[in-house]
Design brief:
The protein has about 350 residues and is an alpha+beta fold. It has one domain (about 1-60, about 95-330). It is about 35% helix and about 20% strand. Strand 4 (about 155) and strand 5 form a beta hairpin. It is globular.
Length: about 350
């Protein structure tokens, strides 16, 4: 029997084995932080299991504009003209869209559901720890000087603009209540911070700083958030809540209630993702011994062993699994292959 820390992700990228998605995961310093946190909790993890759900890229079909519609010529067999086959009289309903999403998932489930245990060799683990330490040192200097430079190269990512671009380029004020709101908590994902004498860093806050220091300042120093969440963030949070509910032993119907219902089409797409997830992996509670387990650990210099007096690291482990890692990876079929750069038996450092 082995312990795995499970990390749930949603992605619009190619998540098939050997894709760039898994190459980046192997460099993610989150793996090292979570493994060390598990050890400090008295656990002996074999590795981190990544449970990745691919987002359905299909979009709802819209009615063909009246000015663009083309009809067939009447014939004896079909005296009533009809629209060409590639045109539509009406918008696709949310339910029809959801059924189409589910059909796409059923036709190619490997494109939407992947599990893997990324291998971290000793040097890779060390390099990840150095990345975290050096990022923290840069963040400390930014906080000391209160200087957070903008990164124009990060204003557009994944085919969408940053939520704070209008404020950063001076088009709107950051205190515009129609666009931005202030949050009391610095880290929305954490329930409580156990210690207050050092600044808490999470994987999300460090990723934000690396992408754009100004975005980090707005989110984590000024505690500002966009009033309207991006589709990517909203979908990720929504699907994550549903998977969490399944792992806590909730029924499929109960898990679907955890999905965001703000947009009926988004709901149907996410509903298809969760229905497909259950069909793919079966009982989500199997082997789960903890869900949403929060932690805080010291930030340690990997070169000297010194503990940071400025920062601590915190986060939440999505779930902890106890059992045979091959069973977790292989369900529902025993002949499934792990993603490139991962192993079906262990994800621990060599």
């Amino acid at each position: 029997m082995s312990l795995l820390i499970l990390e749930t992700k949603t992605s619009g990228e190619d998540i098939m084995p050997g894709s760039n998605y898994w190459r980046r995961i192997r460099m993610d310093p989150q793996i090292g932080v979570y493994l060390r946190a598990a050890v400090q909790k008295g656990l002996d993890p074999a590795g981190i299991g990544y449970d990745v759900l691919g987002k359905v890229a299909l979009r709802p079909l819209k009615a063909t504009p009246l000015e663009s519609r083309k009809y067939t010529q009447p014939t004896k067999k079909e005296p009533t003209p009809r629209l060409y086959a590639n045109q539509r009289e009406r918008d696709e309903t949310p339910e029809e869209y959801g059924a189409r999403c589910l059909a796409a998932i059923a036709a190619e489930p490997d494109a939407y559901y992947q599990r893997a245990l990324p291998v971290r060799l000793f040097q890779e683990q060390h390099d990840g720890a150095v990345d975290v330490w050096q990022t923290a040192q840069t963040m400390r200097e930014a906080r000391r000087l209160n200087v957070y430079p903008r990164n124009p190269d990060s204003c557009f990512q994944w085919s969408r603009a940053c939520d704070f671009l209008p404020a950063c380029c001076g088009d709107v004020p950051l205190d515009d209540p129609l666009l931005f709101r202030r949050e009391d908590k610095e880290h929305e994902e954490l329930e409580d911070v156990f210690e207050t004498d050092r600044v808490v860093l999470t994987q999300s806050s460090m990723r934000t700083f690396r992408a754009c220091p100004r975005r980090y300042q707005i989110r984590y120093i000024l505690h500002m958030r966009p009033v309207l969440r991006s589709e990517a963030l909203r979908t990720g949070s929504s699907v994550h809540r549903a998977v969490e509910a399944l792992r806590r032993g909730k029924s499929l119907d109960e898990a679907l209630l955890a999905l965001d219902r703000e947009d009926p089409y988004d709901y149907q797409r996410e509903r298809a993702m969760i229905v497909g997830y259950v069909a793919r992996w079966g009982d989500a509670t199997r082997g789960i011994v903890a869900v949403e387990s929060q932690f805080e650990v010291d930030l340690v210099n990997p070169e000297t062993g010194a503990t940071s007096r400025t920062f601590r690291l915190a986060g939440k482990m999505d779930a902890i699994y106890e059992g045979d890692p091959r069973e977790w990876l292989g369900a529902p079929g025993a002949d499934r292959q792990p993603a490139a750069g991962s192993t079906p038996a262990t994800g621990a450092e060599v």
